[in-house]
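Figure 6 in text form: structure in, sequence out.
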């Protein structure tokens, strides 16, 4: 049974478009994380189980609402109940070659995109038209943080061993 986006929008007091944005983000994050940007969701934000951040950082009520909706959508994703329209949109947004398969986690902000492939031990980062491939070794990436400095977005990754910067990973190709 597919998720009823209209019912969720009514239940959470947000627009259907906001529910769709969140569903697409959950799909991109393989049901374990989401990066999104929609005014009904407090602007730019991200979610993973137990951690929710929204642009409207002092609005704890909205933050709790977004967290609950993410959990509902993540369960629906795991049960394959998310409607096909966002899945099609995500497939059209897939920017890596078929050799990597499905990403364990993927996200984007502005002109920077990343995709992590745990089974292949690869991390792909796209800045503009350039894609850099990294060997992640034994690291399991469980979170991503972005910082802007000197007109460049830098990525750091939360792993089971703590934070690492993309610069410490072995570059395979670019």
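Output sequence:
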């Amino acid at each position: 049974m597919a998720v009823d986006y209209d019912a969720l929008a009514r239940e959470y007091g947000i627009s259907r478009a906001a529910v769709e944005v969140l569903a697409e983000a959950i799909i991109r994050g393989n049901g374990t994380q989401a990066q999104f940007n929609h005014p009904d969701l407090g602007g730019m934000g991200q979610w993973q189980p137990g951690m929710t951040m929204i642009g409207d950082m002092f609005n704890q009520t909205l933050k709790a609402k977004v967290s609950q909706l993410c959990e509902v959508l993540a369960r629906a994703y795991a049960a394959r109940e998310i409607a096909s329209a966002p899945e099609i949109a995500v497939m059209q947004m897939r920017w890596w070659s078929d050799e990597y398969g499905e990403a364990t986690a993927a996200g984007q902000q502005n002109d920077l995109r990343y995709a992590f492939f745990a089974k292949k031990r690869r991390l792909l980062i796209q800045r503009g038209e350039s894609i850099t491939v990294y060997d992640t070794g034994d690291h399991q990436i469980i979170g991503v943080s972005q910082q802007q400095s000197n007109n460049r977005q830098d990525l750091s990754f939360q792993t089971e061993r703590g934070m690492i910067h993309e610069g410490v990973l072995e570059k395979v190709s670019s």
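Caption detail: Residues 84-92 have pLDDT under 50 and may be disordered.
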